[in-house]
Amino acid sequence: MLAHYVRSALRSVARQKGYTAINIIGLAVGMSVSILIFQWVLHEISYDTDHANYNRTALVVWARQLDTGQQLVPTQQSPLGPLLKNNIPGIEEYVRLQEEVLTLAHADESSSEAVTLADPSILSVFSYPLVRGNPASVLTEPWSIVLTETTARKYFGDEDPIGQSVTVEGQFSCQVTGILRDIPANTSLRFDALVPLQVLEEIGADLDRWAGADYTTWVLLSETVSCGDASAAVDRYCRQLLAEQRGQEEVSDSFFLHPLSRYHLYSLAGDSGRITYVYALSVAAIVILAIACLNFVNLSTARSATRTREIGVRKVVGAHRTQIARQLLTESLLMSVVSLALALTIAELVLPLFNELSGKELSFHFFSAEFVALALGVIVITGVLAGFYPALVVSSLRPAAILRSRSDPGRSGLNFRRVLTLVQFGLSGILITASVVIYYQLDYMRNTDLGYVRENVVFLRHMGGVQSHYAAFKDKLLESPGVLDVTSSAQLITHINSTIGPNWDIDGKDSDLNLEIHFDWVSFDYDRVFGLEVSEGRFYSQAFPSDTIDGIVLNQSAVDMMGIDDPIGKRFTYWGRDRRIIGVVKDFHLEPLDESLKPLALIYRESGDRVFIRISADDIPSALAHIESVHAEFQPEGVFSYGFLDDAYQYEFRSESRMGRIAASAAVLALFVACLGMLGLASYSAERRTKEIGIRRVHGAPTGAIVWLLSREFLLLVGVSCAIGYPIAYLWARNWLDGFAYRADTGPLIFVFVATVSLVAALVSVGYQAIKAAHTNPVEALKYE
Amino acid sequence: MIELRNIAKYYRTGSVNTYVLRRITLDIREGEFISIMGPSGAGKSTLLNIVGMLDDASEGEYSFLGEPVHQLNEKKRASLYKEHMGFIFQSYHLIDELTVYENLETPLLYKKIKGSQRKSMVCDTLDRFQIVGKKDLFPNQLSGGQQQLVGVARALIANPKLLLADEPTGNLHSAQGKEIMDLFKKLNEEGTTIIQATHSETNSAYSRRIIRLHDGWLESDE
Question: Do A318 and B111 count as a contact with CB atoms less than 8 A apart?
């Protein structure tokens, strides 16, 4: 019997090639999109699960209460880790990390690598398996280094790296003590090399001193304690510690643990992060799959109208309803199997493209249990869903009614199909609107005026020896006409997050004021390189030698929040150093996505870790060549690595722009699938109405009228679906945009745009059929009647 | 074999009922060969469809081999039909996607007859109707007469007690029509009960009883 079903299915599929192609391609495209997206989702939720202590590891977070709002700090002061381990029973182990980008060198090879400085416990708290070396001893000696396999191969080729030395930053020599297996892509904490944190003590730091909160501190909880309890214990302990240090009764700051299991997907605040993308894309994948399934159902019912005669005959020769239903289900399952095969092929082919789009390196494991389960699930769900309705409807028809050939079976289920089309276009309209909104918002964020100029600013990633010859280096750079201004600072202007702390003073300071003043070390011409506007006084100037000794430049917010009237010449003291205010710069944003304006002090230092060079837009290559040659002159061994400030800024939005691109691709494909369905429906509609069109033609209807007759229903459907879909998309967009400090204006123009796109797409898919039908010779059309 | 009591069939159009059949009372015994005649729209096909259980009567009682058909559920009715009836149409209604062989096989598949037995039944039938040479052809490769021959063969393959034929020769040349009617006569002589709806006096001459319908009324029964 099954053989008979399959045989009939294959024959009927072969008989209607166009229909079959539309149906299978539509479903395959929908499936391949959802397969790709679900692969992405699986990859996202698999982050860090390779760590054996996945469920017991957590990050210590410090929630600072400032007058300008709460600040979540993921790094702690160095003595905290050991104290937590010794004083809180639920905490078994701690590990402190500092992530750096350092230049490693061996023989001829020299390049910058992600180097993590860590306590030796990193190898027991986290699971980074060693290929060579003993985890208990590889990080015990300060001047040791552990490389990943890839890094080791890069520097040592086929040589045995163990016991060899690697030069770090051109100054220090570290001995290779172990080799790590390469870190899988779904790991949050990644690095090319590990160096013991202890090495900092060798170069003058004191890890027992309460100094800058610079250390990412992870703790390993015992199996008996819950993360919530441990978090509460850490909070109590750290608050008490902080209160003692500050000599206060009570502190408003708090502490909590952020579990490793949430680290990748959730922000520290816990309410957002990549999880929103995971949800959004899962929804998009399901929606596209749903659209493709609706298509399948739609076309199958439309086609079943043309097959009712066959079904009637089958009933007449004795087929029971369930047998008919089974036959139709076999057909749709067969089609969905073929679609899946095609979908897998498509997915495999576009995987490199998808990887580029998503910034991942996904690969398929076709024979993994999850994949087979997923594939079977998709087949059964789509096959049954798509086959069920036609099977139910068509199999229930009474044969006498079907075989009375005058009746128009094509009308059966017409409203059902209309509703499905409505839903399809509604859904794809929502997806398109969503992706347009995301695009607008990204565009808006990228181009927001943050109060400084990002364009044509080059920064050098590594100062190396240049720092000690900064003045000469700067003069040499300025010799080229392509180099306009040069300055130096400690931080990137896009991320100024160092703060002075509570230790500042002015005349007549309000003692209740708990103001966190940000600062950066800056050199001459900082204002010119970044186009900062000096609203009062002047910036540090070589014409006033005293500026660099006792001057200070603040921003407008600092002056306003501290309540200094007429600031020029007033006293400002930080860390016990008295300065007088020489200038006030207009506010700019210290973080890209932070709308608040924060008080800032720009403190003079001859040179910081970074050099910023404003170059002329006229001839960028020659300016860069000049910078490189000057750099080589001052740093013959150093690596010349530079970046454009604007690129670095754009890089911040990489996950958003990836999302945007994925959403846009998904939306386009959703529309494509919906249009494919519409094409199929239009051809059935034209076929069904052949006689009507023939009669109209005989009575002199012009082509335009026929085209309109066939298209108007579809256009109306698309119009209505836009009208229903837009409010939903609008509500979503408002909700989504609420999460952003800067919101793009999403006016009704987007709706007009989406509606136009949908209508044009629908018109194109329907129009061809309509025009073809309108040009058919009426005699031809009526011949069979 | 068949007892019809006050069978009526109507369709609702707006608020009025349009009657196709009115109060038909009829008894048919096994072995009869009956022609239902009447002008277009008289209700011939409808009566045939009701007898063949392809359609339901709006009113009245129908019993087939003592079973009250109007009270049976769909499943019972389908199995009764499957067991005892064969249907032939004016426009043949073969399945276009299937070969002659497969078309003949289909009713047996639905009756869940085993593979080997099915094969021998199909082969016997092909033999009997002398269409062995056509078994791998598709319906559209056959002439009308040949298609109808396959239609008859398909209707008879499971040895039904009752053969229902709706204008079986309507689309055929007269020579082909005569062949089919001769075949009917032979089948009837072998014991199959036949009811055919027809316009043609020539065809009705083959039958032993003629029922005339007019506007849904039973006009004469001779």
Answer: yes
pLDDT at A779 over 70: no
Assess contact for A474 and A613: CB atoms under 8 A: no
Average pLDDT over residues B164-192: 88
Structure tokens at A150: 């890839």
Check A400 against B89: CB less than 8 A apart. Answer: no
Distance from the Cα of residue A160 to its chain's centroid:
39
A255 vs A593 pLDDT, higher one: A255
- Which of 84-123 (B) contact A at CB < 8 A? 87, 89, 91, 93-98, 102, 105-107, 109-112
- In A, minimum Cα distance to B79 occurs at A318
CA distance A320 to chain B (A): 7
Task: List phi, psi (to 5°) of B34.
Answer: -115, 140
Task: Provide the 3-class DSSP secondary structure of residue A541.
Answer: coil
> Is 80 exceeded by the pLDDT of residue A301?
no
Q: How far is CA B106 from the centre of its chain?
A: 17
Which range (A85-89, A466-470, A619-623) has the least confidence?
A466-470
> DSSP 3-state assignment of A424?
helix
At residue A260, the pLDDT reads: 94
- Tens of pLDDT, residue by residue over A166-178, are 998 878 899 999 9
pLDDT at A411 over 70: no
For residue A35, the surrounding DSSP H or E stretch is: helix A17-45
Nearest to A320 among B78, B91, B98 (CB): B78
pLDDT of A720-734, one tens digit each? Answer: 888 888 888 888 888
| Residue recorded with tokens 């004795």 | A318
DSSP H/E element including A422: helix A414-446
Is residue B10 situated within a structural domain?
no
Among B56, B97, B110, the residue with its CB nearest the CB of A323 is B110
pLDDT of residue A406: 47
- pTM reported for the whole predicted model: 0.76
| CATH of residue B49 | 3.40.50.300
Residues of chain A with Cβ-Cβ distance to B155 below 8 Å are 317
The CA–CA distances, whole Å, from B161 to A346, A659, B192 equal: 56, 70, 5
Averaged pLDDT for residues A297-314: 76
Q: Are B130 and B96 in contact (CB under 8 A)?
A: no
A283, containing H or E segment: helix A274-316
Q: Write down the pLDDT at residue B36.
A: 94
How many independent structural domains does chain B possess? 1
Best of B103, B109, B166 to disrupt the A interface (most A CBs within 10 Å) is: B109
Option in A8, A399, A400 nearest B98 (CB): A8
Domain residues for B114?
Answer: 33-56+74-209
With an 8 Å Cβ cutoff, is A700 touching chain B? no
Q: For residues A386 and A304, is the Cβ–Cβ distance under 8 A?
A: no
Q: What is the pLDDT of residue B222?
A: 78
In a domain, B17, yes or no: no
The amino acid sitting at A393 is V
* Nearest residue on chain A to B47, alpha-carbon basis: A400
Q: What is d(CA A302, CA A681) in angstroms, rounded to the nearest whole number?
A: 7
> Does residue A624 contact residue A772 with C-beta atoms inside 8 Å?
no
How far is residue B82 CA from its own chain's centroid? 12
Asked if residue B49 lies in contact with residue B55, where contact means CB atoms within 8 angstroms, the answer is yes
Note whether residue B20 is domain-resident: no
pLDDT confidence bin for B89, thresholds 50/70/90:
confident
Terminal Cα-to-Cα distance of chain A (whole angstroms): 36
**A321 three-class SS:** helix
Classify residue B62: in a domain, yes or no.
no
CB contact under 8 A, A1 and B93: no
Interface test with B, best of A13, A316, A320, A404 (most B CBs within 10 A): A316
* Token digits of residue A504: 């500042």
Q: Which residue is associated with the tokens 């319906």?
A: B139
